[in-house]
């Protein structure tokens, strides 16, 4: 397979259609002696396949074949972080939507609080033993936002040390959770997602569900202040119960080099079947954005300000979690 063309992240260029996508423009009818001599306009054609007269399946097949051709010939683009927008939209999102729509039946609220354009930092709670909440958050932003925006998640080092997972994460737009990369993405007008609890959040015992862990030292606030972008708090309910973690085999975790080895009512007792998440009902709510563009340039170096803003974001997420828990009828419905 040919190598993809790598586009520098900060290159100032207009967006264009993916390589290999061609549209035939309709021509004006030619004047003639009568109606029978007029030429009807030609409908748009994608990749040489006529759109008119074909069924939906025909168009899907043609689009799929065109997509495969571009992958084989390398006529697609990735940015310097490895993000492949075409692959994400046409393959990865398609694979995640059944989980989002039918399995977890995610309800999205407050999506209007995400800016229509420009950079913003979405800060969410983290839970669930496996980081499925981050993937569902990506689908929620893309499919429910009017502008179908893409969320670039900041991921832990471990994600980029795992074979296959590393490549898929980069293709999906994830990047290393470091201030430099996050700031560059924000300044370029991207939506960036961060879950400051990290492994403390997804690896906490079931008895501590929906109790937020520490948000670190407020690095995400400092990044938002430097970029002058708003912070959008996000609360996710439902992910805590997909793998009820009742124990942690710490010795085995150290041997495997992972932060924790979860023990749930079904795993490892049922083997691979025990790794199937429970079909809980999810709610994702985006809160009102917290503006940062009104602060002075040196505000990012003020530890007291960072502490206060971090605490404000954390409290807003925690209170929203409690409110959503009171409102939900059941874990599964």
- The gyration radius over C-alpha positions equals 23 Å
Strands of the widest sheet, in order across it, are 5-13-10-6-9-7-8
Low-confidence stretches: 6-53
Give the assembly state of these chains.
Answer: single chain
Give the helices and strands as they follow along the chain.
EEEHEHEEHEHEHEHHEEHEEH
**Annotation, overall tally of beta strands:** 13
Supply the helix-strand structural class: alpha/beta
Write down the overall geometry: globular
How would you sum up this structure, described in words?
With 333 residues, the protein is an alpha/beta fold. Helix content is 33%, strand content 13%. A seven-stranded mixed β-sheet has the order 5-13-10-6-9-7-8, with helices on both faces. A hairpin with a 2-residue loop joins strand 2 (45-46) and strand 3. Helix 2 packs across helix 3 and helix 5 runs parallel beside helix 7 (219-227). 32% of the residues are buried.
Descriptive keywords:
7-stranded mixed sheet; globular; two-stranded parallel sheet; 333 residues; single chain; 13 strands; alpha/beta; 9 helices
Question: How would you sum up this structure in a few lines?
Answer:
Helices cover about 35% and strands about 15% of the residues.
List the helices and strands and how they pair.
Layout: E1 5-7, E2 45-46, E3 49-50, H1 56-73, E4 77-79, H2 85-103, E5 107-109, E6 120-124, H3 132-144, E7 151-155, H4 165-171, E8 175-176, H5 179-187, E9 191-194, H6 199-202, H7 219-227, E10 231-237, E11 247-248, H8 250-256, E12 262-263, E13 283-286, H9 303-327
